[in-house]
Amino acid sequence: MNSDKTKINLLAEYVEGLMNEYDGKELYLKYKDAIEKVTPQEAFEVFYLQLNKDKKPKVILKVLDKVINIFYKSLSSYPWKRPEKDSFLDVLIQENKALRAKLNDIGEIVKEQNFKGRKEDLLVKVSELKAFNDHYLKKENILFPYMEKRMEKFHGLTIMWSLHDEARACLNKMVSLLESEDCTESEFNSEIGKLFFAMGGLANKEELILFPAASEIFSEEEWRDMGKQSFEYSFPFIDSPQRPSEKIDDEEINELIKSMDGFIFKTETGILNLEQILMIFNALPVDLSFVDENNKVKFFTRPKDRIFPRSSAVIGRDVRNCHPHESVHVVEEIIEEFRNGRKEVASFWINMRGKMILIQYFALRNSKGEYKGVLEVSQDITEIKKLEGERRLLQWDNA
């Protein structure tokens, strides 16, 4: 796992040469020795160096596939220990295999004649691919935070997050196109190729670089922890693995409550113990997430129906790493306005899976007015928006 810094610098020069549109053949011959021995760990360092030189992910993405193709021989032959069956990493690999099967099925339909007659089937099959978003979310909210905490170079995972967003955008465009009555076979063929390249290409990059690199840095206990957290999400296109027993976690929480039996939260508005505080937080019909004054995620609630999945891996993570690179500037602007006291609230609302979601950010300040962080509150307001008139008598809603 030890990296050769000289080799990494040479590889970085090669990538920069491609970004500067130098002659590819000449570059390859110049850096051939380094290229033919590149490892997954070194590939991460090479791309991280580009980010440190203020290269934006979108700029790096322009040459990424060319670089991966050149590195392919070395990366594909790299020996790494395959994960145990149904472990967190193995499940991600299983999901990729199932994704490829789905893409192959779509490919078989594409080969058939009569596009208009196939359009409805294609819409169903392509729409099914949206379920694969949970694969990306597991990487973004579980695997990426673990890797970022382990080594600085893994902050380069923002590049892969950008690839996730590209795949999502391609998929949404493909679905919209198939839903349109004006969709032509020519347009479809163009966009389906992009979708296959985006989703299939991502799976290849995971198995060439991400998974081998990750396999070398975590203990079995850490992999088990990631596996437990993965049950916050679905397992697209595969049977769910056996859920690990939660007995130990429940015992830990009970022990914590028991150990703090004498802990009392007392204010002028009342008195609560720890168990009551946890019950109240989790009963609120909103998602709460707290980011402290150092921009670190410190806490989130687990209501019955969370809108946005959260995994404990994000605790301690820089909030800027919890968002795709293209939207980080919005996060930074909100924090800056709150920190300087110019703003107190920022509100957004989005349509998601047929629901209207209100997302609000509130500046947190202590009794001296000093900035102490941000509280994110997300709420499903679909039913609230439908309210009219009054209800003064008790009437139970169907749960």
From TrEMBL:
It comes from the Bacteria. Residues 334-393 form the PAC domain. It holds the Pfam family Hemerythrin. InterPro entries: 4_helix_cytokine-like_core (IPR009079), Hemerythrin-like (IPR012312), PAS (IPR000014), PAS-assoc_C (IPR000700), PAS-like_dom_sf (IPR035965). This is DUF438 domain-containing protein. It comes from Clostridium malenominatum. The lineage of its organism: Bacteria, Bacillati, Bacillota, Clostridia, Eubacteriales.
